[in-house]
Design brief:
mainly alpha, globular
């Protein structure tokens, strides 16, 4: 299992890759349900970081296949 630091680094890398290859997707990154917690005081943990990373990866894969 990856550490919180590793997941943050992976999220940064994939976010930068999306911005470079598919800049039109950057507007969707901040609107993703994973980034909008429904808790008053959301807890950032390995599970939530992993889910966010997976959602970014899926967004990039699906978009890349169609464009």
């Amino acid at each position: 299992m990856k550490t919180e630091h590793e997941l943050n680094a992976d999220i940064l890398k994939i976010s930068m890759k999306i911005r470079e290859k598919y800049p039109e997707l950057t507007k969707y990154i901040t609107e993703m349900p994973v980034t909008i917690p429904d808790d008053v005081t959301p807890e950032i943990n390995i599970k939530s970081l992993s889910e966010y990373y997976d959602s970014l990866l899926e967004l990039m894969r699906k978009y890349g296949q169609n464009h």
